[in-house]
Amino acid sequence: MRLLMSLAFLGLGFTLMGQHGAAGDKKARQITGWGEVVDPAGDCKIEEKEGVVSITVPGTHHDLNPLPGWNKLDAPRVLQDVDGDFDLQVLVRKFEKPKANTSSNKEKPASFVAGGLLVWQDGKNFLRFMRAANGERDEVFVAVEFYSAGEKLASGGVPIADGDHFLRVRRKKGQFTIEDSKDGKSWQFRRPPGKEMKLDGKVKVGVAAVNATTKEITHQFEKLQLTAK
Which tens digits make up the pLDDT trace of 67-116? Predict the structure, then answer.
């Protein structure tokens, strides 16, 4: 009888361990049509309502930049897998411009916020194309950055009107094309100074939000379109 009870208790122990293991391996949250929610710092709020994805980032430094002085890859994002050529676009809604001298990055102080598209291979190899704003310059602009092997290949920014804005990234035969538009109809080609970007065939794509200020900010995205070729 004692043997049976011991075996039963042992079996229960394994069952509980299995349950705790399952809880520890918590399944990533998905947003239908957008992808997997990724919040490395675990302090952001990401939700979808009526086709609009909102990402709220607290007033602490959340970035996507592997270079010294920034060296942070904890910006929240929502990503899905794609292999080969693709077209990816989204509408980034207008957000509040940051005030000057509110940077949360003490090493590289800039009161900078941004939200937009991310093409992600890993933390050293990715492309970001975002609607951005800088408090010191008091301007809104589209910003492109290419990273390869942890180094910046190319980057550039062009001022735009302070309103909702469309962003589009295309990959065809391994080559990336970057475009933006204020109405989703007439597109402007952007080519940042620097080298061409190359990434593996299979990548993750979607939206991301950056905050380098001491004030909480919410970035909103809608009309996401992803077409695999």
Answer: 999 999 999 999 999 999 999 999 999 999 999 999 999 999 999 999 99
Among the listed residues 193, 164, 189, 163, the one whose alpha carbon sits nearest the alpha carbon of residue 177 = 189
Provide the phi-psi class of 188: left if phi over 0, else alpha when psi is between -120 and 50, else beta: beta
Residue type, 194: G
Q: Give me 102's structure tokens.
A: 């509110």
Please give the DSSP secondary-structure letter assigned to residue 60.
S
**Contact between 183 and 74 (Cβ < 8 Å):** no
Domains and CATH numbers, the chain: 29-228 (2.60.120.200)
Query: What predicted TM-score, i.e. pTM, was given to this entire model?
Result: 0.88
DSSP letter for 65, please.
B
Q: Where are the beta strands (DSSP E) in 50-124?
A: 52-57, 77-83, 86-92, 112-122
Q: Tell me the helices (H) and strands (E) count for the chain, helix number first.
A: 1, 15
